[in-house]
Design a protein that fits this description.
With 136 residues, this protein is an alpha/beta fold. It has five helices and four strands, in the order H-H-E-H-H-E-E-E-H. The protein has one domain. A hairpin with a 2-residue loop joins strand 3 and strand 4. Helix 2 packs parallel to helix 3.
Length: 136
């Protein structure tokens, strides 16, 4: 009986509680700066205030977390040359929130100001996926 209670308690704890130093350091030193740079680039290039919501509990390894960094870097690297006219800036600024998580499939959807993006751990959403959704 005690073993089943212990197992139930362990299942309820956030998975990030078991993240090791390497994962915490990667999130702090690699992922968070990439997200901040993407946010700053959206603000500077398009005039948008976009909040990133990383579902950190769904990412368990630095390999998984690299997908967040790559997606954020893709935004930073492309938005400068993309937001070159008023119509594009208006379209991009429809985004208010980008939620990123690990899921069964890599996908990107946009609805009601929210981008919902996911990685399957082997690929991440592309810049083209983002602009195709936002520019509709």
């Amino acid at each position: 009986m005690k073993i089943s209670k212990l197992a139930a308690i362990l299942l309820l704890l956030p998975l990030t509680a078991f993240a090791g130093k390497a994962e915490r350091d990667f999130m702090t030193n690699e992922v968070e700066p990439a997200v901040k740079a993407a946010t700053a680039s959206l603000k500077t290039s398009c005039g948008c205030d976009v909040k990133f919501d990383i579902k950190a509990d769904s990412f368990q390894t630095t390999d998984d977390m690299f997908k967040i960094k790559y997606f954020a870097s893709t935004i930073k690297d492309n938005v400068v040359s993309y937001c070159t006219d008023a119509a594009t800036k208006k379209a991009m600024c429809k985004m208010k929130n980008i939620e990123f998580s690990k899921a069964a499939t890599t996908a990107l959807k946009f609805s009601g100001g929210k981008v919902t993006a996911s990685t399957d751990g082997t690929s991440q959403p592309s810049w083209e996926m983002l602009t195709r959704e936002v520019d509709k």
